[in-house]
Design a protein that fits this description.
Layout (H helix, E strand, L loop, with lengths): L2 H17 L12 H4 L7 H5 L3 E5 L11 E7 L12 E8 L5 E4 L6 E8 L2 E7 L11 E5 L2 E5 L3 E5 L4 E4 L3 E7 L6 E8 L1
Antiparallel strand pairs: 1-2, 2-3, 3-12, 4-11, 5-10, 5-12, 6-9, 6-11, 7-8, 7-10
Length: 189
């Protein structure tokens, strides 16, 4: 992806955040010269990789398989000055744009629909060999237990959230016809 494309996607994301009433921290808008001479004071931002991430997951097809996210908070257990045990991200998920199946070995996370369209999440448990399991998955949607068949979908409407346990396969995308989704993530580091 060319830098001009990345810059356009970031500008579009900022406009979407503003339309949804979500504010980024001031340093999200700093120009390169504003970072100069601040290495000590911005150490946490740099060390915990806060800021923008854009990915096509190696597909070369960002429109269909990709994600834009901004990491707002993150901990670093190896740093005694930053013992945060939590992280927070805000994401732009486009309709039909897939974040492919993945799971986290140790990380528990809440995924929250903060605005825009609906978020579709497909779920599988993982078996002992870390393959997709044929067992149903039990998740909590806003604290309410829900059993989902393997490969089943949970659709998060505005304000709804789901708690994803470690080793739970997840794939998500914006529901077609409803526009982009502003997605929050609160998780373990």
């Amino acid at each position: 992806m060319k830098r001009t494309e990345i810059n356009t996607l970031i500008r579009d994301s900022i406009e979407f955040f503003e339309a949804m009433g979500f504010k980024l921290p001031p340093w999200a808008f700093w120009k390169p010269e504003e970072w100069k001479g601040k290495s000590e004071s911005v150490k946490e931002i740099v060390d915990t990789m806060l800021g923008w991430d854009l990915t096509d997951f190696g597909s070369g097809d960002f429109e269909n398989k990709g994600l834009i996210l901004f990491t707002l908070r993150n901990g670093d257990f190896s740093n005694p000055e930053n013992r945060k045990s939590y992280a927070e991200k805000i994401m732009v998920v486009r309709e039909g744009q897939v974040t492919p199946f993945h799971f986290h070995w140790n990380k528990m996370e809440d995924i929250i629909n903060r605005g825009g369209g609906n978020l579709v999440i497909e779920l599988y448990a993982s078996d002992r060999a870390e393959a997709l399991s044929r067992d149903p998955v039990v998740v909590r949607v806003d604290g309410i237990a829900k059993t989902v068949d393997p490969g089943g979908k949970v659709i998060l409407e505005l304000g709804e959230s789901i708690c994803l346990e470690p080793c739970m396969y997840q794939c998500f995308y914006g529901q077609k016809g409803l526009g982009k989704v502003l997605v929050g993530e609160v998780s373990a580091v």
